[in-house]
From TrEMBL:
<dbReference type="InterPro" id="IPR011009">
    <property type="entry name" value="Kinase-like_dom_sf"/>
</dbReference>
<dbReference type="GO" id="GO:0009506">
    <property type="term" value="C:plasmodesma"/>
</dbReference>
<dbReference type="InterPro" id="IPR000719">
    <property type="entry name" value="Prot_kinase_dom"/>
</dbReference>
<keyword id="KW-0067">ATP-binding</keyword>
<dbReference type="GO" id="GO:0005886">
    <property type="term" value="C:plasma membrane"/>
</dbReference>
<dbReference type="InterPro" id="IPR008271">
    <property type="entry name" value="Ser/Thr_kinase_AS"/>
</dbReference>
<keyword id="KW-0723">Serine/threonine-protein kinase</keyword>
<keyword id="KW-0418">Kinase</keyword>
<dbReference type="GO" id="GO:0004674">
    <property type="term" value="F:protein serine/threonine kinase activity"/>
</dbReference>
<dbReference type="InterPro" id="IPR045272">
    <property type="entry name" value="ANXUR1/2-like"/>
</dbReference>
<dbReference type="InterPro" id="IPR001245">
    <property type="entry name" value="Ser-Thr/Tyr_kinase_cat_dom"/>
</dbReference>
<keyword id="KW-0547">Nucleotide-binding</keyword>
<dbReference type="Pfam" id="PF07714">
    <property type="entry name" value="PK_Tyr_Ser-Thr"/>
</dbReference>
<feature type="domain" description="Protein kinase">
    <location>
        <begin position="56"/>
        <end position="329"/>
    </location>
</feature>
<protein>
    <recommendedName>
        <fullName>non-specific serine/threonine protein kinase</fullName>
        <ecNumber>2.7.11.1</ecNumber>
    </recommendedName>
</protein>
<dbReference type="GO" id="GO:0004714">
    <property type="term" value="F:transmembrane receptor protein tyrosine kinase activity"/>
</dbReference>
<keyword id="KW-0808">Transferase</keyword>
Amino acid sequence: MGFPFFSGLSCFGDSSQRVTNPSSSDPTLISTEPPSSIITELCHQFTLAEIQSVTRNFEKSLGESRFGIVHRGYVGNTYKPVAVKQYKKDSGFGFLEFKNEVVLLSQLHHPNLISLVGFCVERNELILVNELLPKGNLYHHLHGRNIHPLPWKRRLQICIGVARGLHYLHTGAKYTIIHRDIKTNNILLDDNWEPKISGLTLSKRVSLKSSKSLKRTESDIKGTYGYKDPEYERTGVLTEKSDVYSFGVVLLEVVSAKPPREIYREYLEDCNQSLESYAEKNVDRFLKSKIEPDCWKIFVDITERCLLAEGRERPDMGEVEVELQHALQFQEEADRI
């Protein structure tokens, strides 16, 4: 579909509430195109009073990240539950980043991408209102206390959904969208365990060329420790293959149930052993003897390729999705026997 972007801050209401100097050379954030009716149709602007009402004055906190605090709220006549993210004023998160996320979420639509309900910009408050995903994030289900471990087939299905969502970001619109912060905290789960990618705060929009070469952009180093692509950290050049690397870390985290910091210290920092050897030694004890051998071989192979040192050698997310589907087929066939 088309990817019209609005100009300036026309979607953000009264000019007295706007940032006074929104100019930037970063094409991710600013466009000279006229305002799009899609924005006003799909992106509701809440007043701060409305936000305070739907959250009962920010009564119920669902969690906190480095950028903001998420509150539970209810909107509309049906009292639809929503997640209201109130950005911290001291987080280093600015208006242009906020605008970037609103624009992207307003115009990107995919079953494996979080849906935007609306936003609020008022009295120095920056607030996003998203659909509420009842099962929380994948990180909690891998590392939380007093939870039932996810079965292997479900973990595979979640990974396939995330791969599908990333493939859409990279190829499904007029521009390549590089997420830049793929991690299990940003993978949310609905009632049916369908994953939805969130956290597009740091995402970059890159022109989609007709050639199959990598989409490159110079970028400040952003992302989360343990998930960041070392090639991106070393060169400052961001490509969609940086997301592929981060997803490879997610795959290792899913199969081991180890936090990414541990994975980085034990394996990724110096890679002094094969990935297959590391994965076999560190597979989640709940999964031992439950993974079909051919499924395991495919999973380990695609994970290893995602984590290759050179981005150009890594697979694209479409290939990753296909390989994970193949792995799932082997597992399902074995489970039927």
